[in-house]
Write a structure and sequence with these properties.
By secondary structure, the protein is mainly α. Helix content is 72%, strand content 0%. The protein is built from five helices and no strands. The chain has helices at 10-26, 30-42, 49-63, 67-80, 87-100. α3 (49-63) runs antiparallel to α4. The model has no long low-confidence stretch (mean pLDDT 92).
Length: 101
């Protein structure tokens, strides 16, 4: 249903792909979920949806123990989005990953 949704607004377009990613995550198709989260983040770079969907990508890859990929997205958030809502969590995950790798 979401694949047929169309919006010109950059936030709604990002949400569309993010919701599709959430659906794939719920049915445990993690690779497809990651694909859609990245698509949602890259629709149009902004301070709201871009770091949020990078964060979801980082958390999902972290849960899959793909620490290098997770680190890449957490670092991206850390460098480009210093006022991200979950910035403290990003720092904690990065410390854990640095100790794990």
């Amino acid at each position: 249903m979401m694949k047929t949704f169309s919006a010109k607004d950059e936030i709604l377009s990002s949400l569309k792909y993010g919701i599709i990613g959430d659906a794939f995550s719920q049915i445990r198709n993690k690779n497809k979920a990651i694909e859609y989260y990245i698509k949602a983040a890259n629709i149009r770079e902004n301070e709201i949806t871009t770091p949020f969907y990078y964060y979801k990508t980082a958390l999902l890859t972290f849960s899959m123990e793909k620490y290098h990929i997770s680190r890449f997205f957490f670092k991206k958030i850390e460098k480009k989005y210093p006022f991200f809502l979950y910035k403290e969590n990003v720092d904690k995950y990065l410390m854990f990953i640095e100790n794990k790798i």
